[in-house]
Amino acid sequence: MDSARSIIEELKIKVLQANLPSEISEKLLNLLKFTPSGAELEGVVNYINLVLSLPFEKYTQDILDLNRAKQILDKNHFGLQSVKDRILEYLSVLILHQQTRQINEFHAPILAFIGLVGTGKTSLAYSIAESLGRPLIRIPFGGLGDPATLRGSSRIRPDSEPSQIIKAIKSAKVSNPVILLDEIDRVAEQQRVDIMGVLVELLDPAQNQAFMDHYLDFPYDLSQVLFIATANNTGNIATAVLDRLEPIIMPSYSDEEKLTIGKNYLLPKALTEAGINSGILNIDETVWPMILRPLGFDSGIRSLSRSLQTICRKVARKKVEGESGPFKITKENIGEFLSG
User: Fold this and answer.
1) For 255-338, which CATH class?
2) If we measure between CA atoms, which residue out of 323, 335, 324 comes closest to residue 290?
3) How is the beta sheet containing 136-140 ordered, strand by strand?
4) Phi–psi pair at 314, nearest 5 degrees
């Protein structure tokens, strides 16, 4: 019991010293008026430590530099000019609102990148976060089957925990991160209606300024969070959610664009990841069509990236086994480097 009292007193000091909203401090101190024990004490400690770790009223200062944003987009993505233009228009609006000191009243549109696998949806979200200087937290929706993942679960349950949204805020350490809602069309069918209902609340500026997480049991302001969504298509997204999104359709890459991306973006990255020098690997021009389309038509670049990673890993193994190189990939030996 003495140990429990000691823990409670330490928590009271932490709460009193923390810069929390007054109503939340009062709520936590009320929890500590009694001395719980065992599992109950552990639950109270976990809850209060989580609340103390949340970044109330802490925000990053946006980097609103359009030229810098353009450079980042061009550095990270080849082509996609219409998509880049839309992102730069979005950032321009942010800049104007900042200049007129209306940024706190401005609710940014929820950009939603819609397109097939490998067309660059997720990486564009990372580029936007990099441009703004905000941390990005990704929440995958593929196979998501429990609305509590987004809403949190009540502390009366033994397996209770906060929502992925609150965990993202905690991880970002600021209340205005970029939160990527990835593949929102791929939630489990049996819970789709409930999950879409939570999404409406998350994405609606009239509601998300007082988002109620069942674990927290008090509203948290998400109005300054920049949500970005991705989806393969819109068919499985509720109309109410679509109404709150600004869809940006991702174009498919042509073979010419994929060739440029493969040579200038993906191959250097694959070489670096494999720990080998670019000077020891040469890919014959006649081989690139076989690398671009190993499985036939592919609108994205994911399979191209995997093929180049496979080639580089094979070269890395040959180096470790004693071959000095250089290694030339030709039509005659491409099968050896792409197998497995």
Assistant:
1) mainly alpha
2) 335
3) 136-140, 178-182, 226-231, 110-114, 245-249
4) -60, -40
Indicate the domain borders of the chain.
Answer: 2-53, 66-249, 255-338
> What is the rounded CA–CA span in Å between residue 223 and residue 177?
11
pTM of the model: 0.83
7 near 46, Cβ under 8 Å?
A: no
- Three-class SS state of 78: coil
CA distances from 144 to 39, 191, 221 (A): 29, 8, 24
Classified by CATH at the fold level, domain 66-249 comes out as Rossmann fold (3.40.50)
Residue 215 has pLDDT above 70, yes or no: yes
Whether the predicted pLDDT of 204 surpasses 70: yes
pLDDT tens for each residue of 76-125: 888 889 999 999 998 898 888 777 765 555 566 799 999 888 788 999 99
Give CA–CA dist 261/254, Å, rounded. 11
Task: Output the six-digit token pair for 80.
Answer: 């996609």
The pair of three-digit structure tokens given for residue 303, joined into one six-digit string: 């399979």
